[in-house]
Every structure is written in structure tokens, then in C-alpha cells.
Write a structure and sequence with these properties.
Blueprint: H1 2-23, H2 49-63, H3 69-72, H4 80-109, H5 121-128, H6 134-166, H7 184-203, H8 207-223
Helix pairs in contact: 1-4, 1-6, 2-8, 6-7
Length: 224
């Protein structure tokens, strides 16, 4: 909860800051002025055509991996009949608020063709208003986000393995619970899978190549 809260506060701050810059018509280093017209003035909504949309689709799908946790937590929720429908109905609102709004603000302040691929648009926006510590703050947010994502991934994977084992679709070892009613075998297996990321970094020194490989495989498996 607290790891996720750090991320949410940062995104809300970005959206508010972006809105302020747009209404102030703040000039960006690219020579353009912050405006909602930047969304369609630089080649339209699909400047790279449908192929550009599909190229970005894979990484976008990866960003939504985790919403299945709403269903996974059903067995460990006190009042699932009330809590789960409320959580499920809130997902589209949260996607629009935290994902779509942040993208709109980033591209309104800096046109898509002026965004540097090797620099975080989050950092660039905070630097624009004279916040030199932006890089350090965003790095902290990214680390907490990664920890939050890893935490939820370990939780969901261990529970899914337990469920599959109970139905006979996974090895029986994953169906055993510890004294505290935790699927410990699934938990250990999930952690071993996480460590494979460290091995990949040693085998393939390029971080972006590893990141693209992991996100692509994850997104394909998630959709499957």
C-alpha cells in the first residue's frame, strides 16, 4: 500500500503540474508552448500510423499487468461480495486518471516528437519548473514502484500456482500451505523466477534489451 502510495502521489503531482504549465502556456526547451494542441498539431493523433499504435501497444499492455490481482485477492478478502465489485468498477477510472491523464499532460507540455527517448518525461517536466532534485526523487519513486510491482507479482504468482495445483493443472507441491496458510512453495518458486532477471543482466549487458525482452514475454503471457 505505501509503496503504491508513493507512486500515486508522484503521478498526481505530475498531472497537477502539467495542468498548471498548460494554462500558463509555459515555453518548453523544444521551442513550443505548453498547450493541449500539442496532442494533435504534430502529425495528428497517430503520426506513425497503425504500426506505431501496435508498437506501443505491447508496452502499454505490460503496464496494466496486475489488475488481475483484484480477483486473486478474493480468497483473502473479508467481504469479497462488497469489496471486489467496488474495486473492479474503479479500475477504468484509475486507468484514465493515472495513465491517460499523465500521458496527456506530458505530451501537452512537450510534443511527442520533442521528448528525448533517453530521459524520463517525468524528470523533464519537474526540471522545467526549476526542481533540480527531480531526477533523484523520480529514481526513488521508480524504485518503490518496482518494489511494489515485485511484491504484488510474488503474491499473485504464488496464489495462482496454488489455485492451479488444486485443480490438477500444476505440480502438487504448489498446493501445500505453510502453518500460516501461505503457499510457501509457490512463493519460493516466484522468488527464483524473479532472480532470473539478475541472471539475464549478466548474460545480456544491455539493460534496455533485457527490459524489452522481459516486458514482451510478460505481455504475451499475460494476454494468453
Amino acid at each position: 500500500f505505501w509503496f503504491a502510495m508513493v507512486k500515486i502521489v508522484a503521478i498526481v503531482a505530475l498531472i497537477i503540474l502539467g495542468a498548471v504549465l498548460v494554462f500558463m502556456h509555459f515555453p518548453s526547451p523544444s521551442g513550443s508552448v505548453a498547450s493541449f494542441t500539442n496532442l494533435w498539431d504534430h502529425g495528428g493523433m497517430f503520426p506513425k500510423g497503425i504500426s506505431g499504435f501496435f508498437a506501443g501497444f505491447q508496452i502499454a499492455v505490460f503496464a496494466f499487468v496486475g489488475i488481475e490481482l483484484v480477483g486473486t485477492t478474493a480468497a483473502e478478502t473479508k467481504n469479497p461480495q462488497v469489496v471486489l465489485p467496488r474495486a473492479i468498477n474503479a479500475i477504468p477510472i484509475r486507468i484514465i486518471m493515472f495513465y491517460v491523464f499523465s500521458l496527456i499532460m506530458i505530451m501537452s507540455v512537450t510534443p511527442w516528437n520533442a521528448i528525448a527517448a533517453d530521459r524520463s518525461p517525468f524528470v523533464e517536466m519537474f526540471v522545467l519548473v526549476g526542481f533540480p532534485a527531480a531526477a533523484s526523487v523520480i529514481n526513488f519513486v521508480v524504485l518503490t514502484s518496482a518494489a511494489s510491482s515485485a511484491n504484488s507479482g510474488v503474491f499473485s504468482t504464488s496464489r495462482m500456482l496454488f489455485g492451479l495445483a488444486k485443480q490438477g493443472d500444476a505440480p502438487e507441491a504448489f498446493a501445500h500451505l505453510s502453518k500460516r496458510a501461505v503457499p510457501a512453495t509457490g512463493l519460493l518458486f516466484s522468488c527464483i523466477c524473479l532472480l532470473s532477471g539478475v541472471v539475464l543482466i549478466y548474460l545480456i549487458p544491455n539493460v534496455m534489451t533485457v527490459f524489452t525482452l522481459v516486458t514482451t514475454v510478460s505481455a504475451i503471457l499475460f494476454m494468453f
